[in-house]
Amino acid sequence: MTTDVCAALPNVREQRPLGYWLRHIDGAIEQRMARLFAADALRRRDWQVLNTVACGPLTVAEVDETMAAFRTADEPTVRPYLDGLATRGWVRIDPDAVALTDEGRAAHQRISAQAAALRKQLTACVTPEEFTTLTTLLQRLAAHLDTLTEAA
Question: Given this model, what pLDDT does residue 12 score?
């Protein structure tokens, strides 16, 4: 009986589901970024927070809101990452705003150039148009899933 049911399903070794590919891609990006950021003793999340603050100045709440997709029950705020960047002298945290320091701006520019080169390498297998289409489709899927979550 099990054989009949399994015969009707696609061979998951050949046709993996969307979730598999999303996790696989995220894991591959995580590994590459870990190597990229190792020289600066940064983690991917440190970089994401630094890159977010570079768009500032922002409040801590605005940084948290921007990073909402990465926050979890175990990490409900990115404040520890901000504190780590402040300890390095890369950000200044005031009651009203978080902003890059001159040293942070220089670090962001240097690391941003490295991240752009990595992004180019990671997406070399698709055309710019295909990448735009892929990103648009993933955004649409995410918005749809958010709607389903809100309705539940």
Answer: 62
Single-letter code of the amino acid located at 16 = R
- Length of the chain in residues, anyone? 152
* pTM, entire model: 0.79
| Helices 79-88, 44-53: inter-axial angle, 10-degree rounding | 80
Q: What per-residue confidence (pLDDT) applies to 106?
A: 97
β 98-100/91-93 pair status: antiparallel
User: DSSP of 32-94, one letter per residue?
Assistant: HHHHHHGGGT--HHHHHHHHHHTT--B-HHHHHHHTGGG--SS-S-SHHHHHHHHHHTSEEE-
| Other C-beta atoms lying within 10 Å of the C-beta of residue 82 | 22
Q: At what angle do helices 102-122 and 79-88 cross, to 10 degrees?
A: 120
Q: Which of 102, 144, 96, 118 shows the shortest CA–CA distance to 47?
A: 118
Considering the chain, what is the average pLDDT of its residues? 90
Tell me which residues of the chain have a pLDDT lower than 70: 1-13
Q: Which two tokens stand for residue 101?
A: 């320091």
